[in-house]
Automatic annotation (TrEMBL):
<dbReference type="InterPro" id="IPR013785">
    <property type="entry name" value="Aldolase_TIM"/>
</dbReference>
<keyword id="KW-0216">Detoxification</keyword>
<dbReference type="GO" id="GO:0009636">
    <property type="term" value="P:response to toxic substance"/>
</dbReference>
<keyword id="KW-0503">Monooxygenase</keyword>
<keyword id="KW-0285">Flavoprotein</keyword>
<keyword id="KW-0288">FMN</keyword>
<comment type="similarity">
    <text>Belongs to the nitronate monooxygenase family. NMO class I subfamily.</text>
</comment>
<protein>
    <recommendedName>
        <fullName>Propionate 3-nitronate monooxygenase</fullName>
    </recommendedName>
</protein>
<dbReference type="InterPro" id="IPR004136">
    <property type="entry name" value="NMO"/>
</dbReference>
<keyword id="KW-0560">Oxidoreductase</keyword>
<dbReference type="GO" id="GO:0018580">
    <property type="term" value="F:nitronate monooxygenase activity"/>
</dbReference>
<dbReference type="Pfam" id="PF03060">
    <property type="entry name" value="NMO"/>
</dbReference>
Length: 331
């Protein structure tokens, strides 16, 4: 079903159809990232990867917040940033299903070989519809409890995402989430309760990391950060510059940009707002969007979400095929 190496879906720019095609040509499996995109854009990408091994990643909609007051408080706090970047803060937008139904329909119509979900568990009916279309469904989890809940929906496999992973945590318990687990730990915890194959993800930076996870029983290893500087990736220039500077610092887990815990490079924004940021995806994602867009336009990395995992220091700029080759080298 899967090659042993998976190039992770990375929404927000890094994943391109070109990256997925390059991964497939090099013997890995790349996932398109449907997150934040309009269905038309997803459809264009599905057409662009036809004939290549590929998957599609879809965000499961988050439940509406019970109490919007902390979000309003955070909005007030962000006024200083809005002034700094000369943007208007939008009114709070509490729900957004990211065109979930349309994206599922596209996956069914295009009989996408693999569909992975993050941020929650899809309805069993959705899993059945995809299975009937010949699609293997994978659900991302961060703990044994989340694995049990996901298994009830009938997926073909689980993705065990560690706290070391770059980008958003798929956790459904963002409150207590600290992001301290390693890929080996989460793989073991998930395998202990799962009767389906488990893909390991988080913090992998070398062939030795990949081999250790495969040796510990992972059906495949999903790597994201290692591909952020791939020639074919659409990573923003400001993030590339930070990662190539030789001084990218360290990663932190923060809700400051989107309201969902995510690991990224520490910067001025994470220092200033991580402590105050409430739980609230996608409300905070929409709230900070104009600030992030203005910062990106100025090439100012200090207010950008620079998603990256703990292995970021080993990331090298190279064609994706070379990175696949490096990660897949025999131990
Ligand atoms: C920039 C970036 C964007 C990401 N976007 C997504 C996404 O859209 N969907 C998803 O399921 N995972 C996403 N992830 C998480 C990856 O699927 C995976 O768990 C992670 O990259 C593995 O850890 P690593 O980055 O240390 O290799 C993203 C990761 C990064 C670094």
């Amino acid at each position: 079903m899967l090659t042993s190496l998976v190039v992770a879906p990375m929404a927000g720019g890094p994943t391109t159809a070109e990256l997925v095609r390059a991964a497939a040509r090099a013997g890995a499996t790349g996932f398109l990232a449907a997150g934040y995109k309009m269905p038309e854009a997803v459809e264009a990408e599905l057409r662009a990867v036809a004939g290549h091994a590929h998957g599609l990643n879809i965000f499961v909609p988050s439940p509406a917040p019970v109490d919007p007051a902390p979000l309003e408080g955070y909005r007030q706090l962000l006024r200083a940033e809005a002034d700094r970047y000369q943007v208007e803060l939008p009114p709070l937008r509490l729900t957004d299903d990211d065109h979930y139904a349309a994206k599922i329909e596209l996956a069914v119509t295009y009989r996408v070989p693999l569909v992975s979900f993050t941020f929650g568990v899809p309805d069993p009916a959705v899993v059945r519809a995809l299975r009937d279309a010949g699609t293997a469904v994978l659900i991302t989890v961060t703990s044994a409890d989340e694995a049990r809940a996901a298994l009830a929906a009938g997926p073909r496999a689980l993705i065990a995402q560690a706290g070391s992973a770059g980008g958003h945590a798929s956790t459904t318990s963002p409150d207590g989430y600290r992001g301290t687990s390693t890929a080996l730990e989460v793989l073991a915890a998930v395998r202990a309760v799962a009767d389906v194959p488990v893909v390991a993800a988080g913090g992998t930076a070398s062939a030795a990391d990949v081999h250790a996870l495969l040796g510990a029983g992972a059906a495949a290893v999903q790597c994201g950060t290692a591909f952020l500087l791939a020639d074919e990736a659409g990573t923003r220039p400001a993030q590339r510059a930070v990662m190539l500077s030789g001084e990218p610092g360290q990663t932190v887990v923060t809700r400051a940009f989107t309201g969902q815990p995510a690991r990224g490079l520490r910067n001025r924004f994470t220092d200033a707002y991580s402590a105050a940021a409430p739980i609230g995806y996608p409300a905070i994602h929409h709230l900070t969007a104009p600030i992030r867009a203005a910062a990106a336009a100025r090439g100012d990395a200090s207010a950008l979400n620079l998603w990256a995992g703990t292995g970021f220091a080993a990331t090298r700029a190279a064609p994706a095929a070379d990175i696949v080759g490096m990660l897949g080298q025999a131990a």
